[in-house]
Amino acid sequence: MMIKKTISIDMDGVLADIQRHYLSHYFEETGIRINENDIVGLKEADCLPDQTAVLRYLHTPGFFRSIPVAQDAQDVVKELQNYYEIFVVSAAMEFPNSLLEKREWLQEYFPFISWKNIVFCGNKGIIDTDFLIDDHLKNLDSFSGKGLMFNTFHNVNEHRFERLKNWTDAHRFFVADLQNKMFN
Amino acid sequence: MMIKKTISIDMDGVLADIQRHYLSHYFEETGIRINENDIVGLKEADCLPDQTAVLRYLHTPGFFRSIPVAQDAQDVVKELQNYYEIFVVSAAMEFPNSLLEKREWLQEYFPFISWKNIVFCGNKGIIDTDFLIDDHLKNLDSFSGKGLMFNTFHNVNEHRFERLKNWTDAHRFFVADLQNKMFN
């Protein structure tokens, strides 16, 4: 039996569609609808016209519990679990109130991921898996395995890591990785 | 400049004196005082005469927030931080309600450890540091670096890992490690 390779997957911006959540919170608060295209290339912390908004939302109780799940994430992760050992690795430690919310969110949307495979941390540099799928350069930079940049508005101008456009594209990447493993 | 080696340190049974906490909870509940010597060699889950007690305590809100800090742990960890990069790595994910309590507990007793260096996980096998100080064999077994068994009642009959008797002994071990590094 072959040992499964390991994949660490980030939450916000990867499993969870935090961009949509920011924009819908902003609309609820101000009545102003901002289009996803309008914030492409902006930094996460100041992607909204009210530059206090993002940080305020991140500290609002319930914010992390109610993020919509990213398109196709559930199906693809469940499928990948047949061939890889999957860990969810979130830098949740910065926002202590997010800890329980994130744990409950995972239980709701990814009940097939065991608590044994969930990691809430600060610096991801001590995570030892084969792959890390993340939207933040700082996490990919400190990671020692193969980093994969999950596409989102704030990272479009970064080109140092292989980019996964969405979960369908992530599926394609790992199918190719498996084929490569089988034929080499 | 030399790169600091990294040490992961467990919480319950290592930084936090959970044995004392079990015994004092049991005394408050029943009026029966059990001596530390009476439980040497017993398994953690059933170290008390009421074998439902430990699991019940672990699920009691406030239990993790109020564990007494282990003797000398603060002084020694603070001292070691000058020479090593210290991470706290706790298998907190099994008890979701413990997450915030453990984060707050660390903030109170170990404010000199950054949130960036705190990890709450399930399986410790994906933690990539040079050392792990832990009281549980299963965590040391899955760890890929050098495991150090922190002495406590339930692990006295395990002999596969080098044993640290207490925090003074941990200090001795790492002073020797530093000397070894300097003279080799």
Automatic annotation (TrEMBL), chains A, B:
Q: Which GO terms describe its molecular function?
A: 5'-nucleotidase activity
- Which Gene3D superfamilies does the entry mention? Deoxyribonucleotidase, domain 2, HAD superfamily/HAD-like
Q: Which GO biological-process labels does this protein carry?
A: pyrimidine deoxyribonucleotide catabolic process
Kindly give the InterPro entries that the UniProt entry links to this protein: 5'(3')-deoxyribonucleotidase (IPR010708), HAD-like_sf (IPR036412), HAD_sf (IPR023214)
Active site (catalytic residues) = 10 (nucleophile), 12 (proton donor)
Q: Which domain of life is it from?
A: Bacteria
The UniProt entry, under Pfam families, shows: NT5C
Concerning its family, UniProt says:
Belongs to the 5'(3')-deoxyribonucleotidase family.
Instruction: Write down what this protein is called.
Output: 5'(3')-deoxyribonucleotidase
Q: What is the lineage of its organism?
A: Bacteria, Pseudomonadati, Bacteroidota, Sphingobacteriia, Sphingobacteriales
